[in-house]
Write a structure and sequence with these properties.
The complex is a heterodimer of chains A (126) and B (478). By secondary structure, chain A is α+β, with helices and mostly antiparallel strands. Chain A is built from four helices and nine strands, in the order E-E-E-H-E-E-E-E-E-H-H-E-H. Chain B is globular, with a radius of gyration of 25 Å. Chain B has 478 residues and is α/β, with parallel strands linked by helices. In chain B, helix 3 runs antiparallel to helix 11, helix 6 crosses helix 7 and helix 11 crosses helix 14. In chain B, strands 1-7-6-5-4-2-3 form a seven-stranded mixed β-sheet, sandwiched between helices. Chain B has a three-stranded antiparallel β-sheet with strand order 10-12-11. The longest helix of chain B is centred in the C-terminal third of the chain and has 37 residues.
Amino acid sequence: MELRDNVKYAKTHEWVKELGDGVVEIGITDFAQDALGDIVFINLPEVDDEVVMETPFCDVESVKAVSDVYSPVTGVICQVNEELADNPALINESAFDAWIIRVKDVKEHEDFLSAEEYETFANEEA
Amino acid sequence: MELVFEKSRAGRGGQNLPPLDVPETVIPEEFARVSAPRLPEMAEVDISRHYTELAKRTHGVNDGFYPLGSCTMKYNPRINEEAAALPGFTKLHPLQPVHTVQGALDVLYLAEQYLAEITGMDRFTFQPSAGAHGEYAGLLLIRAYHKDRGELEQRKKIIVPDSAHGTNPASAVMAGFTVVNIPSLDNGCVDLEALRAACGEDTAGLMLTNPNTVGIFDENILDITRIVHEAGGLVYYDGANLNAVMGVARPGDMGFDVVHLNLHKTFSTPHGGGGPGSGPVGCKEFLAPFLPRPSVAESTDGELAFLDMPKSIGKVRSFYGNFLVVVKALTYMMTLGAEGIREAAQNAVLNANYMASRLSDLYPMAREKGVMHEFVITLEKLHKEKGVSALDVAKGLLDNGIHPPTMYFPLIVHEALMVEPTETESKDSLDEAIAIFRKVYEQAAADPESMHEMPLHTPVRRLDEVGAARNPRLKYEF
């Protein structure tokens, strides 16, 4: 599984990257995309929607199943990666580049895992 | 293979209509079609060959073993078809005066009594056309109940365990509720602590199937329904797995308030392409006023009549649902009788346990023992070590003339294959299937690469499932 050091990880298999000015970028991990298999559809939220920590904000559909994507932070969506709607396969191609939403006004966040901690956690799950 | 439209030849036909012997009526222009429909023009023999050719390329219960977990693909007895083909049923019009269709009303009335007896419910409606439609109608009953008590604004949440059928959360959202997902225990059973934490003044209800999707009977069922009731919610029974317990245990006695059944699973009416389906919804007496109308009841003069139901949620489908499917299900229940219904459930459980025990040395089971009517295999180890997935094994089974089990469900089991043999398979057919399952596993272990090529001998090989989902072509373009 691919891991990156410049992002933090949630136990529900999302990654979070700080972009500065209190804005964070959220996507799903490489481990998650691999477990899901070929993603065929993504149900994206909208700009200005509120996201709440540990609550789903979007769902992804693969050939196997539909899965919720949980927000690791509480805040307001300021940007949605609309490109994914037409081409959800981008998540399979490069999960860490295919961000799903950008969130501003982050009020609280989960206890994140480091790349190393997430690797251990994911291996136990697998 | 060519479509009927491609086989069409202008001017060819299969009908010799008799001369018109009634006055011709001109359809008013606003109702008339602008252009003629593009119907294929074919001779009867060519149409017959076309559909026979299609049938050869399918796999149904009549072709062989069909252990599609959670779908209860049992054999559909011919006597059901004979009853449903009686002209007294087929030549009815749904708007005929009720005194001319007392027999048909009797079918609905009797079937309702029997299903109520089997499930421990008081009343049923036959309007919903399938399982998910039944779920939706059942949830509308729960909604109507809370609304009637003035609590609908407050009670918006339906609790669904993560081992549930995917239709449960979807139906809850369709019915205007918010879904609260609670984690299940490893055996798919309800985590009582998680349930207690999720229940409150905003709880509208809980949706559950028992036995659950891992094939385990939840022994805490009485506690589960009590916890939800104490919070003021109602409990919904997804009848998908009733085949394991019918005639043995009743959802009504477990504390459920609403159930839906799938006549096309449990009660032996055709499933899938052979449908249509039927998803009757049953409820306890206190919910009966909200049932879809019309409903059949005995009137004072001994005739059957349709009830006036002022609090009804209205219609969820035209007329009385798929009436002839109810005729088939009633035929099934009358053929088996109370004893036979119980025996069918017992044999369904016996068959699943026999097969599981004959496979468990090779195939790792999601649960060691004590399954009900179906069992779940997890191929996580095979996938990790040999790169052979549940999909590959399913394709291997197809190549050996078996319809694959349900794949990748329940979601809480990785690389899952969910096997439901049903009671209508003999020991011989189970032994044959067991031999094939073993052969496929051995091939997967010895020559993993070859499994990615499966199936080799089916009418079509691996279909582009991803392409079909990403770029669906849903209609034929002329």
